[in-house]
């Protein structure tokens, strides 16, 4: 037995952010469905910290689970679609291989006759939205000749009150960005909107933006000398003003590089931070880079970029930061992003950042309930507080929808780091080696990921223990 220091003696130690320490499988291949039959394969889930929504990929059905409860069926192909004159959900309305499940919000006019401000009526609405509360199904095509047309290559975003979406009108079939506030559709921008400091109009709008509390954001492109100008437009919901907090020509001060391309997938945290994925160039070093950055109050923080060391070994690579494959999520002071750890096989892992500390939460090689993960597939809404949700593909060809606890030292996933967790940590500490056959699966007490549960892990656990709450 090794001697242990008193926890209070290290209460001033700085907390680090370790990987996942507990996994909760929501549903897995061959589990029975609530209405009969067996689950097979899953598309990436959405998650808000309490409710998780997911689809059965083969049967095109929508499910949700609340807390630790069992999954329940929400909608399936052929069922009655509410609000469309008795029409039914169609195969295309529920299925989308490359985007995440989104819900239908209550009380918001998503249908084709919703009035557009100063323009006319909606002709088409693109894709779907991401908020698991009031989960119903993706948008459905109206049975009366195509009042609503759905395209799955762009995303909506929502919070508890408001919705951001893109649409084309029957008057001018040009895409624009819109939001719904308390049931009213409000115009944000389209290709007639002028970027003030450029003096030119927007040429392209990406609806893969986000909306949280006071702000909505979306990526826009405007004609400019080689290359076109790109930036993130921020719309203030209270007064309709627009600014551009992140621009392609921003200088990143600590790396001496200029952004030359911003990926169309920025997201917001609850307090207004903007998380975005960029391609940058350094004239002085004659190099290109890609990475994930965080904007807050006119200051840009690097999360990870090409050449930085990965917490699981090696470095982040340029090609592996693919714009479409790098999924971003933000919640409070935490950031999550997916990264392609094996470019040729397309295998992904989820990395977590908090206060400058970066860790890998889950990815190839992670053990979950005796199975080995081959890759993970998350959505933009994967992160909520101290938990992250994803679909895991296993080496045996099976799948599962999983919620992982990413709070350091909370081994029983109750939101606290307390005496019960200390008992688990102490047992692992005395075993020392993660390879010990009686060590708990995935060695959750190895908080720094070095293959041992030793004094360095104890320092991290003690700081979490003294903080008590997962925040």
Short description:
This protein is mainly β and 471 residues long.
What's the end-to-end separation, in Å? 33 Å
Mean pLDDT: 76
Q: What is the CA-atom radius of gyration, in angstroms?
A: 23 Å
Q: Total strand count, please?
A: 33
CATH class of the largest domain: Mainly Beta
> How many distinct folded domains?
2
Structural class: mainly beta
Tell me the strand percentage band. Answer: 35-45%
**Which parts are unreliable, with pLDDT below 50 for 5 consecutive residues or more?**
1-17, 81-86, 90-99, 101-116, 122-154
- CATH second-level architecture of the largest domain: 7 Propeller
CATH topology of the largest domain: Methylamine Dehydrogenase, Chain H
The main β sheet shows up as:
7 strands, mixed
Write down the overall geometry.
Answer: globular
Percent of residues in helical segments? Answer: under 10%
* Number of helical elements: 3
What is the topology?
Elements (H helix, E strand, L loop, with lengths): L21 E7 L17 E2 L3 E6 L4 E6 L5 E5 L14 H4 L20 E2 L3 E9 L21 E6 L1 E2 L3 E8 L6 E6 L2 E7 L3 E2 L4 E2 L2 E9 L2 E8 L6 E8 L5 E6 L3 E2 L4 E6 L4 E2 L5 E9 L4 E10 L2 E7 L22 E4 L2 E9 L4 E8 L2 E6 L4 E2 L2 E7 L5 E2 L2 E8 L4 E7 L13 H13 L23 H13 L4
Parallel strand pairs: 7-8
Antiparallel strand pairs: 1-33, 2-3, 3-4, 4-5, 6-7, 7-10, 9-10, 10-11, 11-12, 13-14, 15-16, 16-17, 17-18, 19-20, 20-22, 21-22, 22-23, 23-24, 25-26, 26-27, 27-28, 29-30, 30-32, 31-32, 32-33
Characteristics:
disordered N terminus, 6-stranded antiparallel sheet, globular, 2 domains, 7-stranded mixed sheet, mainly beta, 3 helices, 471 residues, 33 strands, Methylamine Dehydrogenase, Chain H
